[in-house]
Amino acid sequence: MAKRRKSSGGLVAALGTTGAKAVQFHAKEDTKFSTGGSLPPGIENGIAKLSECKFDTYKKGDNEGEYYFIAAGIVVEPTVAGSVPIRGLRTQIMEPLCDTPTRSRPTQKDHVGWVLNELRKLGVDTTDMDVTSLESVCQALKESQPYFRFRTWQGKPTTDYPDPMVNEVWNGACPDYTEGEVEDAVDESDEEESEEEDAEDENEETDDASEEHILSKLGELADAEDDDATLQLTEKAEENGLDVNDYDAWSDLATALENIDEPEDNVVAPEKEEVYGYRPPRHRKDVECEVTAVFASKETCNLKNLDDGKAYKGVPWSKLVSDEE
Q1: How does strand 80-81 pair with strand 275-278?
Q2: Strand 46-57 to strand 147-154: parallel, antiparallel, or no bridges (unpaired)?
Q3: pTM for the whole thing?
Q4: Torsion sign over Cα 95, 100, 103, 104
C-alpha cells in the first residue's frame, strides 16, 4: 500500500470544514460494493453462498409501499465462466408480494407460494409456518449462510432486444458441499437445450422471458435500488429516445418502454387536448385520458387520466381508443 502523506495542496482548503467532517464521518464505515454486473448465461451446477434473505418494500413506482421478497448469494464456483471471472459476483432472486394482474403469477397467493417454495429449496420446513414466522425464518437463513446450487440461462434475442436479460434459477441447498469440490460448472453446449427446459420451469424468474416481463422486472429491481437494473433501463431509454429524468420512478420508465411498439399503418395522429380511451399497464379496462403532448417523430404522446390526474408518458398512438372504434 502506498505511504500516506499529509496533503498540503488546495484540496484541504477547497473541501473546508464541511469536507473535513465528511471524511471523518465516512472513514470508518464498512466497505460497500456495487451489486451490478450480470452473471453470464450457461452456468450449470454453480455454487453460491447465501448472503441476503429478507422482505422489504418498494420505494417508488406503482407498487410503492408494497412488500417484496429478495434473496441473494455470493458465487463460489465456478470461478470463471468462459473468460469472465465470476467468483464473488452476486446471484439474486426477487418476488413481489402483491397482486400483479399482468404477470403469469397474478395474485398475492401465487407469489407467496413461490417464495415458500424457494425457502423449502434452501432447507426450510414450511409445514408449520405461518405469516408471523416469515421474517424470522429469513433472518435465520441469512445468519446460517447455506450453500446452494444455481444455474443461469438467457432467452433468445429479438429485433427489439438483441441482448436479452440473463435469468437466474436457484436449485436448492447443498449442505454437504465444501468449497473446491466443483471444478467446471459451465457447459455452453447445453445452453440451447436448457433454455427449452426452463421455459416450463415454474420457478424461472422471467416467465418465458417475455419482453414485457423483463422490463417490468427491471423496473422493480431498479426501484429497489439495484444498480445493474438501473443501468440497463438507462441504456434502453437512450436507445429509444426517452429521458430518464421525465419519470418519477424506474417502473414508470419500464412501462413507457413496454408501450413502444413498431409503427402501424394508417394510425391517425392525435391532437393536444383531445380525449381518448387508454388501458394503462396492470389495468383491466380503458380509462379516459386527455392528450397533453404529441411527438410526431416517435408516434407517441403524453396523456393525463381524467379521473385521477395521473400522467402517462410515451404512449404509442396505436394504443389510443377513440369513441368511433
Answers
A1: unpaired
A2: antiparallel
A3: 0.54
A4: positive
